């Protein structure tokens, strides 16, 4: 797996009509294939399997308790997701399913009534992958909306909506998307997802902390399903628990997601093969393998993103025509262990040691090559932790205190990326970030420690969906003394973006009360970046 999600090779799924690997096709053959796909439209009728009486299988229970999702769209394909789990929290982690394969029928249509079906097929859901359903539908016409659903044992799922991206080389008029992170179940409810699901978006980027690994907090507004998770069954059930949330389900049913991860999908603040509280490496790698396996089962990611023991390559690029490239980064799996002897915060010379890496050499080379050769109008880096230099005591001249889990703990790696953006004149780099449970805007300079170096990029840091709950904390005063600082807000929410060839706009959506699933959500602040002029301007 090394291809872009815009023009790479793909594989088909059993029973898919009209599916052909696209990799080797000429452009003309591909256009013909797309036309043939459009010609596959079936006139108004419901297939028999979808009309069977409900409740005949799965002991009368709904197998689609975790909803439906889609993701990793290209200009010709998209991944459809579900998981059969009539009892989503069954202790063995198998969702109440038998230990045998189950046929799942799927179909994708041009309309929300599922009348104009363009493709259908059967996917075999297997107990080895917790009866996850992942269908990579190929040969779809570019840049349009689709609706899809599944059927297992005569029970139909809800209908989800998804889309393909604009064709390679075309400059789309407009892109709208949201990015989000950090949805600790125990910290509150998902009013932010309820609001996002109602927006007019082409996709959602999830930047990590999709689940949290911690045990039960009795004082929380809602509780985790058990103690801190270590085993495959526990990671599966934690994902399943989060996926039972109706607002999160609505967001997944409304848009394709582009998903990466941060630390809590495995363990707080892990770095490569080293664990927060110093478990032996082989033991931690076993845990990481279980966590990665469960993640791949629950995320609507392409088949190329799959675990190999404790490793899984998830960094990948999406092309939204020529308007935007989106690089989803993985800054956990390959990072060097923490600087300054493992301190949480502080500073020391090895913070800036060029041999220490946030991304790992292979991912850094991949990103550098992609950025240096990019012809996209906007180049979006979807990443986990704050990239801007953020000295928490910048107000005291000569004193330094950095969060060493962020890019400040890997300063040389950061500055190599930003200096490359300057040297190669990368068109409009924009960094989008999660992790810190608060909203920020930063101007990023080619050399972070040199305020006289040019601004080359803009960073929008999105707050948490729920993590942090309704605790009031204010990092704004500490952040404001840093040279690149533009904005801070400490509430829960997400970021909505609207992008065209000339202008990027980010709206910070904030939740009034994270303890209320019906809470109002409103725009707290908006910033724009003009094409060709790095740096954010408040509007
Ligand atoms: Fe978080
Ligand atoms: Ca985090």
Describe this protein's structure.
The protein is of the alpha+beta class and 539 residues long. Helix content is 16%, strand content 25%. The protein has a single domain (27-538), classed as Purple Acid Phosphatase, chain A, domain 2, CATH 3.60.21. The chain has helices at 27-39, 191-197, 232-243, 246-254, 281-298, 361-372, 411-423, 476-479, and strands at 69-71, 78-83, 102-109, 117-125, 132-137, 145-152, 155-156, 160-163, 175-180, 203-206, 257-259, 316-320, 324-328, 345-346, 378-382, 402-403, 429-433, 439-445, 455-461, 485-489, 493-499, 503-511, 521-530, 533-538. β21 (493-499) and β22 (503-511) form a beta hairpin. α2 (191-197) runs parallel beside α4, α3 runs parallel beside α5 (281-298) and α6 runs parallel beside α7. Mean pLDDT is 91; it is low at 6-49 and 51-55. Bound molecules: fe (iii) ion and calcium ion. The site of calcium ion has 5 residues, from loops. Fe (iii) ion binds at residues 182, 209, 264, 435, 437, 464, 467.
């Amino acid at each position: 797996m090394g291809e872009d999600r815009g023009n790479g090779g793909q594989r088909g799924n059993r029973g898919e009509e009209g599916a052909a690997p696209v990799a080797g096709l000429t452009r003309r053959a591909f256009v013909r294939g797309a036309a043939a796909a459009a010609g596959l439209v079936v006139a108004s009728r419901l297939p028999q399997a979808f009309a069977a009486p409900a409740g005949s299988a799965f002991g009368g229970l709904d197998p689609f308790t975790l909803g439906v999702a889609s993701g990793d769209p290209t200009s010709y394909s998209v991944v459809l997701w579900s998981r059969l789990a009539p009892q989503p929290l069954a202790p063995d982690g198998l969702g109440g399913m038998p230990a045998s394969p189950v046929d799942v029928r799927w179909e994708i249509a041009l309309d929300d009534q599922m009348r104009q079906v363009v493709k259908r097929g059967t996917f075999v859901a297997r107990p080895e992958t917790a009866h996850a359903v992942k269908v990579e539908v190929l040969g779809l016409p570019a840049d349009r909306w689709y609706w899809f659903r599944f059927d297992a044992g005569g029970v139909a799922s809800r209908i989800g909506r998804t889309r393909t991206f604009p064709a390679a080389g075309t400059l789309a008029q407009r892109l709208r998307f949201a990015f989000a992170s950090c949805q600790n179940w125990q910290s509150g409810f998902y009013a932010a997802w309820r609001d996002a699901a109602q927006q007019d978006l082409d996709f959602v980027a999830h930047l990590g902390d999709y689940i949290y690994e911690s045990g039960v907090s009795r004082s929380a507004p809602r509780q985790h399903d058990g103690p801190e998770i270590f085993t495959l069954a526990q990671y599966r059930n934690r994902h399943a628990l989060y996926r039972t949330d109706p607002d999160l389900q609505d967001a997944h049913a409304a848009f394709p997601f582009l998903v990466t991860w941060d630390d809590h999908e495995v363990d707080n603040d892990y770095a490569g093969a080293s664990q927060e509280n110093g478990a032996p490496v082989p033991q931690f790698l076993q845990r990481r393998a279980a966590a990665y396996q469960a993640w791949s089962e629950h995320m609507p990611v392409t088949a190329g993103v799959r675990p190999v023991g404790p490793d899984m390559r998830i960094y990948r690029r999406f092309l939204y025509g020529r308007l935007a490239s989106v690089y989803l980064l993985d800054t956990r799996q390959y990072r060097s262990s923490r600087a300054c002897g493992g301190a949480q915060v502080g500073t020391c010379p090895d913070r800036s040691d060029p041999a220490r890496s946030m991304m790992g050499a292979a991912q850094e080379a991949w990103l550098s090559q992609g950025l240096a050769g990019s012809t996209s109008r906007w180049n979006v880096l979807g990443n986990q932790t704050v990239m801007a230099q953020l000295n928490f005591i910048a107000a005291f001249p000569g004193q330094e205190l950095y969060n060493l889990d962020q890019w400040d703990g890997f300063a040389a790696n950061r500055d190599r990326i930003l200096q490359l953006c300057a040297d190669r004149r990368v068109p409009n780099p924009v960094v989008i970030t999660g992790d810190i449970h608060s909203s920020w805007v930063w101007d990023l300079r080619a050399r972070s420690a040199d305020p006289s170096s040019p601004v080359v990029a803009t960073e929008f840091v999105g707050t948490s969906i729920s993590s942090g709950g309704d605790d009031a904390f204010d990092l704004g005063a500490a952040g404001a003394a840093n040279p690149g600082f533009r904005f801070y807000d400490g509430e829960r929410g997400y970021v909505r973006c609207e992008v065209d060839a000339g202008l990027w706009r980010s709206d910070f959506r904030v939740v009034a009360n994270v303890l209320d699933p019906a809470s109002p959500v409103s725009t707290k602040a908006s910033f724009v970046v003009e094409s060709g002029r790095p740096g954010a301007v408040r509007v």
